[in-house]
Amino acid sequence: MAGKFISFEGPDGAGKTSVIDALVAELQPVLGDQLVVTREPGGDHFSAKLRQILFDDANKGMDGRTEALLFAADRRHHVVSTIEPALAADKTILCDRYVDSSVAYQGAGRQLGEKEVWDINTFATNGTMPQLTIYFDLPPEVGISRIESHRTDQINRLDEETMNFHHRVHAAYLRLYHQHPQRIRIIDANQPLPEVIADTKRVINHRFADLFSN
Question: Is this structure's pTM higher than 0.85?
């Protein structure tokens, strides 16, 4: 891959969006249109439609395998329409969620099987993976508390799952971290946001030297 592909993972409430916004504010003036900021699901018009279906409270009864396959279908579209063209053009991609989210939320949270969901997404992505994944680690109780306190207008049907669901998700993320130590780097998200941002920049610069000036 010619470009740089960085994904960001973690539970809702871990501060991913705030960190990505801070990184973009610093990188955009330097990289211009060589910076691609995207998310899953919802990276374009097609994905936004799927996102609405996946997170709609009216679809609480959705079968777990249906959910996993919809995420994988969105990911395939994302890869061919956004990620692969950006990499071929030597761009830098910041992606809010990728394959690890499906393994954690559907594989472990929904108890569909982490390997099974990994395999579905390997097929969907044809093996296209980030060179670096930043995982923001946070106790599930803290993440849910942050959402309930500050983001009541953004709570979706996955956020409303049981605490056992969120503990399974958290445990799966830690397993992924240990299974892929060369790709995944862990950040303590239970610290002040400026420290989380600084730690994230250090990790990125360790992999991609001098992407940030300080």
Answer: yes
